[in-house]
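>> Question from a student workshop board

For tomorrow's exercise we were told to take the sequence and the ligand below, predict the bound structure, and bring the output to class. My setup keeps failing. Could a helper post the expected result so I can at least see what it should look like? The ligand is NA7.
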Amino acid sequence: MTTTSHSVEADYDAIVIGAGFSGLYILKRLRDLGLSARLYEAGSGVGGAWYWNRYPGARTDSDSMIYCFSEWFDEDLVREWGWRERYSSQPELERYFNWVADRLDLRRDIDFDTRLRSAVYDEQAALWTLTTEQGSVATARYFIPAVGALSDPNVPDFPGLADFQGPCHHSAQFPKDGIDFAGKRVAVIGNGATGVQIVPEVAKTADSVRHFIRNPCHLVPGRNHVLAEADVEATKEAITEILGYSRNTFGGFPYDFLGTALDTSPAERQAAYQKSWEQGGFTFLFLFADVLASREANDTTMDFLREKIRTLVRDPATAGLVTPTDPWLTKRPPLEHGYYSALNRDNVHVVDIKANPVDAVTSNAIRLADGTEHEADVILLATGFDSYTGSLSKIAIRGRDELPLTARWADRPRNHLGLMSAKFPNMFMLYCGPYNPAPFTNGPTLIEQQAEWILDWIQYLDANGHVAMEPTEAAEEEFFALHSEIANSTLIPETSSWWTRAAAGADEPRLVMSWAGGFPEYRRLCDVNAAGKTDHFVLR
Ligand code: NA7
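>> Workshop helper replied:
Here is what the output should look like for this input. Compare the format with yours to find the bug.
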């Protein structure tokens, strides 16, 4: 039992929800600080997104060497694990998470197969009471949802979907023992990072793959390969410097913008695009800073991408169907691992469901608005997630005065720094709060920065006899105004994706859900709001 300054006993100092990168990071670091913590995980194992997303072809888009816990988490572990491929596959990541959990004996503080039903704040006691679907009830001084921004599957409400007779799975609910696609006609719906990973992998064995696409995404080659032993060792040697540099770049990656597209001559620009294209990976996203806000600059990237698609996809009609129309970098560009070449296979076909939407699913087919039926034996829904608010709103979170989080966020999410919401004291949204810079930032880089900010505050509160903190509404408004000013100066509001929400009114831009001002500026704001340095929080 731990005790608050009110002498009300809590079962734990902190309860953390979710055993992905963020949950495991803060669990371990809370333990380092001598605090008691419990972690609830709905799945049966560790890994978070990498536990759930076990669909064929699942792998990271960040280079594996920076998509892992850093020396902030553990000085030794960062140099022990040797990544096998440039981008880790889901099985390798799951092995990594299990290795980390075993090495640090994290499982003793985790309840698996445990889904949080409600979290209710008692202002008098300054405690959160957490009740799980499994019936357990526990109290904690700090409540740390680390549920990820993309963990609530978006399953389309196509009429008849439940009557489909073959296997039908959302990508985040793919069966653990897999599916044998040999001889099967497979329908894949959705053209984000997930859909473009599934199609080439399934096409290797399936009889046929039909890819149903509404709005094509922008793809950049990954150029995955097995890493040479010497390179892995050299990276381990330099990892502290690499990660240190990465923390100061726009995206938390070990590279940054070269300059602006419009200040670069057409020949040099083309050479930069081409060089990055050949290297593969996310460097392509961080070539020219002005593509985010200038249509003219953006068009230079779009022209390059259109030309590549024309060259890579043999059938012009198919090439047309996968050529994006949304501006570049206004939604998450996935990496390409053989998607365009898969479209040249005889057994892969693209189906346009923008012009001709899905009307219904029958027992053995997908029927489109014009009556065409595409027979299928298996349906894979790569249809994304209810981003940011989906998972949080499925937990009955009630703050001061019994206020539901869903009520406070009814018109739009309200928070400070994407980390804390007024009226919800001591609730820290780690890597899952709206307006955080997750989509633009290497995941672990942001997670570790946010977690350390939270831990600094917890230590400050404990050291100074405070039982609770929450942001002022004025701080939230100021942060949101800055967020909106930056986001609305970019082209992002033009595109519907998991980065945006429908506009509130006819004359308003779409609400951008992610911080678009870059990781260094976000980190600077967090530093300004660091423990004990700010009056943006009310301390009790
Ligand atoms: P995304 O990137 O959100 O993509 C979802 C895709 O599913 C996208 O192409 C959507 O088309 C499509 N979609 C969603 N609902 C429907 C319906 N009802 N009908 C047809 N098509 C639909 O999710 P992913 O899982 O691919 O990737 C998520 C993130 O994981 C990714 O950004 C990386 O960070 C890793 P739309 O564009 O809305 O027309």
